[in-house]
Design goal:
Length: about 170
């Protein structure tokens, strides 16, 4: 094996014969003056230089540490941020009725068009979230889940039917 190309030269002779010697050798020119030559040899990525001359971070100031927070004597007293004594901290927001309403709207829309699927997906997600909360009505959440899934199936049926109609037209 050799590095000589196997294509015949201009005269049609085989490589390595006397007529192929007339081809001038390839020249490699020096870089122009605009190219910068690095000082020293190229460095392998990750290798150390002569030593670590730069600090890994900037200088850190030495100031006294100031502790902020409640004073030790104030821990036993009531703080100002607590709610008033007459209010309760019970979460009375309900998600299941909203999920049921979204499921009914999505089911009504899915009887006519397939574009009710986003509302149906919102109803399914909201009903699953309300089933995981202990304060929600589980019966309402189950109804919302079943109606939301039915609306999703009906809407998907409309979208599949519309897709098949486009194949007949195109």
């Amino acid at each position: 094996m050799s590095d000589v190309p196997r294509t015949p030269d201009r005269a049609g002779a085989e490589p390595g014969t006397a007529s192929s010697a007339a081809v001038p050798p390839t020249r490699i020119e020096r870089p122009s003056g605009e190219v910068e030559h690095p000082a020293g040899s190229a460095r392998i990525p990750g290798s150390r230089r002569e030593g670590y001359t730069k600090l890994p971070t900037g200088p850190v100031g030495v100031e006294p540490v100031v502790v902020t927070g409640p004073v030790a004597e104030d821990i036993g007293r009531e703080s100002d941020w607590e709610p008033a004594t007459g209010t309760s901290a019970v979460d009375d927001t309900r998600l299941a009725p909203w999920a049921l309403m979204a499921a009914v709207v999505a089911l009504a829309a899915s009887f006519f068009v397939g574009w009710g699927i986003p509302i149906a997906i919102v109803a399914v997600i909201a009903s699953i979230m309300s089933l995981r909360r202990p304060v929600e009505s589980r019966a309402i959440a189950r109804w919302a889940l079943v109606l939301g899934l039915c609306a999703t199936v009906y809407s998907l049926g409309w979208l599949v039917w519309a897709g098949m109609q486009f194949e007949r037209l195109g």
